[in-house]
Amino acid sequence: MVLLRGIISAIVLVLIWQAIVFGFNLPPYLLPSPYLVLESFNQNWLLILHQSIPTVIEAGFGFVLSLFFGMLWALALSYFRPIRLWFLPVLLISQALPVFAVAPLFLIWFGYGMASKIAITTLMLFFPVTSSFYDGLRKTPGYYLDLAQTMNATKWQILWRIQAPAAFGSLGNGIRVAATFAPMGAVIGEWVGSSEGLGFLILNANSRMQIDLMFAAILVLVILTVSFYFLIDWLIKRLLCKHYV
Amino acid sequence: MVLDGFDAIIYRMNYNQQAPAINISKLHIRYNHHWLFNQFDFYLPANQCTCLLGPSGIGKTTLLRFIAGLQHDKDTEYSGCIITSDDKPLNGRIAYMTQKDSLLPWLNVLDNVLLGFYLRNEKIDIELELEQRAHALLEKVGLKYVKNLKPEKLSQGMRQRVVLVRTLIEDRQVILMDEPFSSLDTITRLKLQDLTASLLVNRTIVLVTHDPLEALRLGHCIYIISGSPAKIIHTIKPQGAVPRKVDDPGLLTEQAKLLQTLANNEFEI
Predict the structure, then answer these.
(1) Alpha-carbon A76 to chain mean position
(2) Interface contacts (A, B; CB < 8 Å)
(3) Residue B28 CB: number of other CB atoms within 10 A?
(4) Considering only alpha carbons, which residue of chain A is nearest residue B163?
(5) Which domain holds residue A6?
(6) Where residue A48 sits, what CATH number does that domain have?
(7) Which of B171, B178, B235, B247 has the fewest CB atoms within 10 Å, i.e. the most exposed one?
(8) Which of B96, B106, B118 sits opposite A146 (nearest CB)?
């Protein structure tokens, strides 16, 4: 249903777009008509598909790594008090750093290839995962904790068997946010410096005034992002949140 | 008396108990610079159910948490002396039934019942005997057929019965109950009181409640507490074996007197 409504509104938007181009008589280098974009896609689909493979790989790896590090951090933050006291502020400061500003550094550290893009994506996504999971861990209902404590469970057992499952719903929200940002992180990484990927293609097409190709690449990026989101959403519902409140 | 399989299991659980008496003295509890208890002393006889009856907000739950050793509340200061009749610490011998039923929504009924063993990693060692006990108890409370369901599928009364079984299977000598039946309808509450009284024998029980009838049905000894800081203003030792019948004339006269006392006291505050 969501998908159907999305498709319908997309079609309406495309029609409005076509009407604007037609009505104001805009030249193709400012705003190409949807028809031109489609034609460009038709001509260049092999190129676009080819260039989207590295982007997908970077986004995927970045996403998985951010999940791993994000959850690890959240567990560490709630288990070790010193980490909470000393590293929570650092975590917040790290988010104040704009990814764009540090991205060139990552290029120097991790090289010109995929590794630097994966690192940038991970840096971008890991905060929503950490903060949502940590928040969920912190907000475990007090009576669960009381109960576990009178049952003589250790701190680790409580964290692992009560707090973590109780926080899965909250973690799911963070993962969804991360899923929508993942392709964006990869594209940002490619903008800073790369020789392949959708970000590279968009930048390249832009500098050559191939606006129609640029739009076609953006279109593919949007489709990729939306399908990735729905895949992750489906997985979360299947695996994580089926029985969690 | 001849007992068949399941009843025998429950019988063994209940009659091998050596529950301690507990004496609490010089209890001071201060919450946000406000004294909840000051120089408060009270005694819990062994193997009996002691009821604490008093208005809400007086600190009954705080008192229970103190006995249970749950003192990690930042705004509350505690001091006091707990002495048990067998001189062993209470730690590890207490089961705590909270106001909310606190079943974990992601575990099914059976896993919720066995939560304590699962949390402590003990489940593997004694699995067979444990499963048998769990099944016996679930059958006893009429939940045999829902043991694989998630708690969300159960009614309030059924959930509370699961909690009862979970409390029981931990096999603790001291049981603290914090208004366990307050969210149930009258009939279900009466049924659960009967069930509780028949299952939790030979244990030292503290039952916190604000329902006079509940106290009179289940308590061997009833302390009425009131005021700030809280004091025991009245002690009742009802006659007869628990659970007392609702239509017992003795119980009804006691209830009338008790309601009178509570109403008068409310007035003084």
Answers:
(1) 23
(2) 56
(3) 15
(4) A147
(5) 1-31
(6) 1.10.3720.10
(7) B247
(8) B96
**Cα nearest neighbour of A244 on chain B:** B106
**Which B positions 24-53 lie with beta carbon below 8 A of chain A?**
none
Q: Is 90 exceeded by the pLDDT of residue B196?
A: no
Question: Does A23 lie in the same domain as A116?
Answer: no
Backbone angles phi, psi at B126, to 5 degrees: -120, 35
What percent of chain B shows pLDDT beyond 90?
Answer: 11
- Closest C-alpha to B46, from B92, B93, B79, B112: B93
Q: What is the ipTM of this complex?
A: 0.83
What distance in Å separates residue B232's CA from the closest CA in chain A?
27
pTM for the model stands at 0.85
Position A241 scores a pLDDT of: 59
Residue B249 at interface with chain A, using a CB cutoff of 8 Å: no
B168 pLDDT higher than 90: no
Kindly report, residue by residue over B87-146, the tens digit of the pLDDT. Answer: 888 888 899 988 777 899 989 999 999 999 888 888 666 677 788 888 888 988 888 899
Q: Is beta strand B221-226 parallel, antiparallel or unpaired with respect to B231-236? A: antiparallel
Domains of chain B: 1-93+174-192+201-264 (3.40.50.300), 103-171 (no CATH)
